[in-house]
Structure formats: structure tokens, C-alpha cells
Specification:
Distance between the termini: 46 Å
Helix content: 40-55%
Order of helices and strands: HEEHEEHHEH
Number of domains: 1
Mean pLDDT: 90
Strand content: 15-25%
Shape: globular
Largest sheet: 5 strands, mixed
Low-confidence stretches: none
Number of helices: 5
């Protein structure tokens, strides 16, 4: 029995260490460098604590002055910090509950593009790359005139934030 408890303790410590060294530690150290990030607490970790193929971006808390742009920036900075890592998927979660799934390739692209790509382009096109937790597409793609497409993309971006965490935040208040 004692050997089993030791094995479980070692496994739990190993999972925490893997998360800390592989994703959580590097990302949180980088986020700390930008004082604008103080209003958003997003903790990246491996799914189930041990699955190195899936990263979870868990939005844990928001300050009263946090904006959608703050949440986007934190997500983009985490992707940038982890841009050399390969994942099959990135889960966007709120307090442990996955709300959206982004392909690992799209997550890596966001990380590579951060700092060089126009962030408005990344913000506009992010929703069309998302899937719901059940695997269905979260948002469609838009065609037509520039102003019509831009308007619909920004509406989808706002809806993404509502579905990701804003609805839950509003219900808790």
C-alpha cells in the first residue's frame, strides 16, 4: 500500500513538473513581463495535466477593468511563447470548462505571427478557426464586400468572447 501511495505521489509530482517546465512556467514568466496582463489570469497547462499533444488555455479570472483585447493579447502572448512547441489542439477554457478548440497548427501560427502580423487581422479571423467542444464549427466564414465581411467577423469575435467567458462572468455577478 505504501508503495502505491509513493507511486501516485511521484506521478502527480511528475505531471506538475512536466506542466511547469513545458508550458505553464515559460508562459507565465513571459506574461509577467507585460504589466497590461495584470487584469487577466490565464493558465496554460497540458490537458489532464499529462497530455503533451493538447494545451489548455484556462481563463481563470478577470479584473474589473479587463477587456476583450486584454484576453486576446494574453492568449496571443502565450501562443508566441510556445510557438516552437507542437500541439494537435489548443482548448480555450473558462475555469476548467473547454468552450472552444483551435487546431494546434492555427495556435502555432498565431504564436509565430504575434508581433509581426496586424493583430486586428488575427482577431478578425480567429473565430472562423474555432470549433466547439463537441467538434462542430463555432463560426462560419464570410464572403462579400469588405465592410460587410469585416462587420460580421467583428460580430463573431464579440460572440466568441461572450460564449467563452463573458456569459459566465455576467451570470456570476
Amino acid at each position: 500500500m505504501r508503495a502505491l501511495l509513493v507511486a501516485v505521489a511521484v506521478a502527480l509530482f511528475g505531471a506538475a513538473a512536466l506542466n511547469g517546465f513545458y508550458v505553464t512556467g515559460p508562459a507565465l514568466l513571459e506574461l509577467r513581463e507585460d504589466p497590461r496582463n495584470e487584469t487577466v489570469t490565464m493558465v496554460p497547462h497540458l490537458r489532464y495535466g499529462v497530455d503533451p499533444t493538447v494545451i489548455v488555455l484556462d481563463l481563470v479570472s478577470l479584473g474589473s477593468t479587463a477587456s476583450m483585447a486584454d484576453v486576446d493579447r494574453v492568449m496571443f502572448q502565450i501562443a508566441h511563447t510556445l510557438r516552437t512547441r507542437s500541439f494537435t489542439a489548443a482548448h480555450l477554457a473558462y475555469r476548467g470548462s473547454t468552450k472552444f478548440i483551435l487546431s494546434g497548427a492555427d495556435f502555432q501560427e498565431i504564436g509565430r505571427d504575434y508581433g509581426s502580423q496586424n493583430p486586428i487581422y488575427t482577431i478578425r479571423t480567429l473565430p472562423e478557426k474555432l470549433y466547439r467542444a463537441d467538434g462542430t464549427r463555432a463560426f462560419g466564414t464570410w464572403t462579400g464586400g469588405v465592410f460587410g465581411v469585416l462587420t460580421k467577423q467583428m460580430e463573431d469575435h464579440q460572440a466568441m468572447h461572450v460564449d467563452w467567458y463573458l456569459r459566465d462572468v455576467a451570470q456570476a455577478r
